[in-house]
Amino acid sequence: MKLERGLIQVYTGNGKGKTTASLGLALRAVGRELKVCMIQFMKGGGPYGEQMAAEKLAPFLTIIQTGRPGWVNKDNPHQTDKDLAAEALALASEKVCGGEYDLVILDEINGSVSMGLVPVERVLELLASKPPQVELVLTGRNAHEKVIEAADLVTEMCEIKHYYKAGVNARVGIEK
């Protein structure tokens, strides 16, 4: 099965659930035997639960981590982080335009743009080169205004209350 028409979706905002929403979409697509690739920008380390699930759902779901373990310094990103993000963007272009995948998710690419790891112009070029039958999802905080303008759907996750503020750390199977 192939999509008749692929659109561009953006999940952004300060609330929890952007990656989770994209994984829900991936699960729905896999259920219809569509091929899905998620490229995770700035997410080295793990393994995360979604990576373990992807192994079980192969060959329909592929998740590729890029980045180093730990957090990127948003005020002064290391050159290594910039280099890894550039490699991830080149890989994203290959996966979006290569004809193998129906749905491509660029997890945390919005944050990569806002931190200066990836130029927004390169992201816009990727959006413009997307084949008509490929669905493309971009997640992460601080989606650039031009990316929002280019998208067909934009959802903003708004934090109202979060248990992290009460001292609850990331939990295996829920956040990682």
UniProtKB/TrEMBL annotation:
The lineage of its organism: Bacteria, Pseudomonadati, Thermodesulfobacteriota, Desulfuromonadia, Geobacterales. It comes from the Bacteria. This is Cob(I)yrinic acid a,c-diamide adenosyltransferase. It holds the Pfam family CobA_CobO_BtuR. It comes from Geomonas diazotrophica. GO terms for molecular function: corrinoid adenosyltransferase activity. NCBIfam families: cobA, PRK05986.1. Keywords: Transferase. It is an enzyme of class 2 (transferase). Its EC number is 2.5.1.17.
